[in-house]
Amino acid sequence: MEHRSLPTEIALHQQSRVLEIAFDDGARFRLPCEYLRVYSPSAEVRGHSPDTAKLQVKKEAVNITDLQQIGHYAVKIIFDDGHKSGLYDWNYLYKLGRAWQPLWFDYLQKIKDVGYQRSAPDPFETLAARGEQPAQLPGDGSTGSAVPSTNQNAVSASTEGGQ
């Protein structure tokens, strides 16, 4: 069954290369740009079947240059490596946030299996070192379950330090 929450806030923290998204059920996710790029929903990345998916490597330093809201159902993410063909619908972003750990570990195993060595620190470990949780889910005891927002489905960008 697909999750049907809607975002109440989307903020791009370009300096730390993290997209923060809050949903109306109280969930809040901090998703590194690299993670979003390697799990792009585009056919260019995912292929037309699991057998045709293309493993993404050398994306450690990728950043997001623009976010374009598509109607009331998705956001188009423009990356600084030129990738811009994926539409991230709200359900997919929620899934990426909720399942970040198994998805990320699966990706790390796949790049290890092909002999690729990462050239930068793990972005989720960087979040943890700053005391930030990748996922805060409703009812998990996390603080900040109520999402302050003055604009439903707000999309914003920030370049402040540390976030």
UniProtKB/TrEMBL annotation:
GO terms for molecular function: isomerase activity; metal ion binding. It holds the Pfam family GBBH-like_N. Keywords: Iron, Isomerase, Metal-binding. Residues 10-94 form the Gamma-butyrobetaine hydroxylase-like N-terminal domain. Residues 125-163 are annotated as: Disordered. The keyword Lyase does not apply. The keyword Metal-binding applies. Residues 143-163 have a biased composition (Polar residues). PANTHER family: OS02G0197800 PROTEIN (PTHR35303:SF5). This is 1-(5-phosphoribosyl)-5-((5-phosphoribosylamino)methylideneamino)imidazole-4-carboxamide isomerase. It comes from Thiocapsa imhoffii.
